[in-house]
């Protein structure tokens, strides 16, 4: 299986390539990219240089142009597709119909991957994208069990890519409006979930630190306790007399123990989340999963390397996510 790794900066791209990534996904520094955060992402020049570096290491570069273009203002998305092709990227990851159509018509030689933002989770939906735009791979939403992925693969003839490590969303990929509600900026249109310019930390009268987003208190912490970034879906809220993580626990996915099952289910590629993470995270996680994937054929034990990844996990906690959701 192919190991697909994140890069939010040119330095992270080089770290991923050096650590053994088979493919590296990244995006431009604008609204076409679902990780459009200040200080991250690539200019066309940086992307072109990154592609040369990755190819020299034997790795592919996949460019995420995976937000949804706005009616009457699609030129930015078209330009991003043209720039990715000019930079010799190996594939474009997209979700928007207009972006997919532009890429298929203007750059038919370029592979098209369907972004998780499209939330395509049925054979019928995947057949549509494959038949209409020539999509070669679909990144599956984080809602499937392994048997469901196996069943899906039996009904489609395109490659499937699944997440195996990193942060989780609330399983409404491409349709979440929580951050938009709080800040007025949409993850799906402008690529910014819980944008930093809407983040604020302040103490209340009792000395507790309040983490706020768009004026909403997302979480509170005892004085001196480490405070997490106020991502709205991972905040603590009170409802019906109970206080807790109402939408999603602050925990990272780790599907290491399921790699063999995913291989048997027909999965082509394994995706690591984390384009907002630094070089140490990239190098550590990619190296660990490189050993794990290679171990499927060599028999080498990657357990210690994977165990060391707990320090990179959100809140120091890990889960197998929807692969083993008990409510299923």
UniProtKB/TrEMBL annotation:
The keyword Iron-sulfur applies. Its cofactor is [4Fe-4S] cluster. Keywords: 4Fe-4S, Iron, Iron-sulfur, Metal-binding, Ubiquinone biosynthesis. [4Fe-4S] cluster binds at residues 169, 176, 193, 233. Pfam families: Peptidase_U32. Pathway: Cofactor biosynthesis; ubiquinone biosynthesis. Forms a heterodimer with UbiV. HAMAP family: UbiU. Required for O(2)-independent ubiquinone (coenzyme Q) biosynthesis. Together with UbiV, is essential for the C6-hydroxylation reaction in the oxygen-independent ubiquinone biosynthesis pathway. Belongs to the peptidase U32 family. UbiU subfamily. This is Ubiquinone biosynthesis protein UbiU. It comes from Roseibium porphyridii.
């Amino acid at each position: 299986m192919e190991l697909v790794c994140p890069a939010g900066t040119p330095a992270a791209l080089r770290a991923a390539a050096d650590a053994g990534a088979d493919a590296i996904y990244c995006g431009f520094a604008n609204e076409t990219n679902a990780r459009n955060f200040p200080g991250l992402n690539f200019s066309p020049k940086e992307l072109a240089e990154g592609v040369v570096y990755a190819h020299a290491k034997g790795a592919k570069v996949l460019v995420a142009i995976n937000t949804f273009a706005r009616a009457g203002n699609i030129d930015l998305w078209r330009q991003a597709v043209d720039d990715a092709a000019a930079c010799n990227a190996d594939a474009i990851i997209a979700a928007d119909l207009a972006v997919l159509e532009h890429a298929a018509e203007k750059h038919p030689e370029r592979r098209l991957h369907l972004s998780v933002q499209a939330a395509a989770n049925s054979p019928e939906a995947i057949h549509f994208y494959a038949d209409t735009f020539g999509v070669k791979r679909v990144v599956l939403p984080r809602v499937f069990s392994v048997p469901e992925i196996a069943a899906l693969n039996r009904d489609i003839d395109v490659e499937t890519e699944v997440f195996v490590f990193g942060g989780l969303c609330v399983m409404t990929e491409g349709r979440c409006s929580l951050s938009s509600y709080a800040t007025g900026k949409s993850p799906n249109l402008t690529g910014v979930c819980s944008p930093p310019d809407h983040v604020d930390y302040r103490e209340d009268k009792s000395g507790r630190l309040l983490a706020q987003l768009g004026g909403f208190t997302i979480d509170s912490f005892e004085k001196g306790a480490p405070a997490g970034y106020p991502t709205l879906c991972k905040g603590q809220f009170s409802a019906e007399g109970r206080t807790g993580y109402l939408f999603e626990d602050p925990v990272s996915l780790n599907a290491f123990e399921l790699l063999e099952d995913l291989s048997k289910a027909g999965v082509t590629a394994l995706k690591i989340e984390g384009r907002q993470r630094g070089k140490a995270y990239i190098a550590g996680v990619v190296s660990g999963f490189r050993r794990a994937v290679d171990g499927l054929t060599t028999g080498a034990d990657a357990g210690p390397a994977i165990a060391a990844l707990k320090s990179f996990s959100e809140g120091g906690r890990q889960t197998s996510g929807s692969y083993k959701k008990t409510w299923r």
